[in-house]
Amino acid sequence: MEKQAALLDLEKRIVEDKNLPLREGNLVFGEGNINCDVMFIGEAPGFHEDQLKRPFVGRAGQLLDKLIIMVGWKREDVYITNIVKRRPPENRDPLPEEIEAYKPYLKEQIRIINPKIIAPLGRFSMNYFLPDAKISRDQGKVFRIKDKLIVPLFHPAAALRGTGTLEALKGSFKKLPAIIKRYDALVAAPHIHEEPHKELSKEQNKELEQEQERLL
Ligand code: URA
After folding, report:
1. How far is the CA of 164 from the centre of ligand 1 (A)?
2. Which end of the chain lies in a sparser environment, N or C, as judged by fewer CB atoms within 10 Å?
3. How many domains does the chain have?
4. pTM to 2 decimals?
5. pLDDT in tens, 15-53
6. CATH no. for residue 179?
C-alpha cells in the first residue's frame, strides 16, 4: 500500500479502536513530510494540540518550529508525532499502560514513514526507545536501533523552563543535518549503540535486539 493510504488506514484503525485509553480527547495522529529523513516523537498532546488535532502547536511547538528553522529546514520537511496520541487529562504524564496501548500504532507509523533518524523529544519518548538512557546524560548522542538512528533531545517544554536546557537543545539540534549526512556510516556502526554505556556480551546484544524488534 502506498504510504499516504497506509497512514490513513492506520489513523482509521486508531479511531475505531474502542479499547484505547483517553478516548474522551481528540486524536492527534501526527503530521508532516511522510518521506522525511527525521521524525520527531513527543510524549502526548497538550491542550492546544487537542483543540487543533495537530502535534506541537502550543508554546513548546513554537520553539520546535524555531529550532527546525534554525537548522535551515521547514516544519513541512519533517514528520512530527507523539507516543500517546490523545491528551492525558490536566496534561499529566502519560501512564505506562497508556504508552503500552498506543505502542503498536506508533510502531506501525514508524514502519510506514521509515525515517532515517528518530528524534525522541524528552525522557518519556527517549525511554520508549532506550529504556536505560538518561536524558541529561544522553541527549544529543547518536544511538542505533536496526536501520534507524535515534537521537534523543530535551523536550522543548523543558527548554522553555531553563536556559541551560535550551542551549543544550540548540546545540544538539544543530548536529542533526550532519547526522543525516553521516547516516550511512553511522548505521553501519558495529555496536547497537554508537556510544554504549557498557560493552554488551553477545547474549546481551541478542536480548537487546529482540527487545528492539518489538519496538521498530
Ligand atoms: N508536548 C508533547 O509532548 N507533544 C505535543 O504534541 C505537545 C506538547
Report:
1. 20
2. N
3. 1
4. 0.91
5. 999 999 999 999 999 999 999 999 999 999 999 999 999
6. 3.40.470.10
